[in-house]
Design goal:
This protein is mostly helical. Helices cover about 45% and strands about 10% of the residues. The protein has 8 helices and 2 strands. It has a two-stranded antiparallel ribbon with strand order 1-2. α7 packs antiparallel against α8. It is flat and about 70 Å long. About 5% of the residues have low confidence.
């Protein structure tokens, strides 16, 4: 089947569009599909984690020293250089061995190396533990709201604390 757009090349991309119960089918060659902005498997860029990490390492001041590159995990013997190539750590102990480098990487990726999101509470926790945790979390948010002078949020948090207590 020939391309509906150019009529020269073989169609490899088949688009079906349904608008108001009207079906339109368009058969395009890869070049014409790319010109129309349709991404095909051949045109989609693939960026594995290792390439992403390598690109992060190309910035100023992020070079790995020769001594650091050979730094290895005491448990599994994987090196920092292997992590940079594959994007995978060898074992859970690697987090301790490469802590400084991982902290810098997380800071560049996420803007912080400290988790500030929500914490999963396991079902094994008793009601009193869950209540205590929630109260502590709400009190911290209340302090932040008062410091930011967001008094509407502070009043809401105060009421939620009182309801739990």
């Amino acid at each position: 089947m020939r391309c509906d757009n150019c009529g020269e090349r073989e169609a490899a991309v088949h688009l079906t569009q349904v608008v108001d119960n009207s079906v339109t089918t368009l058969h395009l060659c890869p070049q014409c599909a790319a010109e129309k902005g349709v991404q095909t498997e051949t045109s989609v860029a693939k960026f594995p984690l290792s390439d992403f990490l390598a690109s992060l390492g190309q910035g100023v001041g992020t070079e790995i020293g020769s001594g650091d590159a050979q730094q290895s995990c005491d448990f599994c013997n994987s090196t920092l250089q292997e992590f940079r190539k594959t994007g995978r750590l060898g074992c859970p102990h690697c987090y301790d061995s490469f802590e400084g480098h991982l902290r810098d990487l997380l800071r560049r990726l996420h803007g912080s190396s400290h988790h500030t999101g929500e914490v999963y509470l396991t079902p094994e926790l008793g009601d009193s533990d869950t209540k205590r945790y929630r109260l502590t979390e709400l009190r911290q948010k209340l302090k932040g709201a008062v410091a930011a002078e967001n008094f509407e949020l502070a009043a809401e948090l105060r009421d939620r604390i009182r309801a739990i207590e």
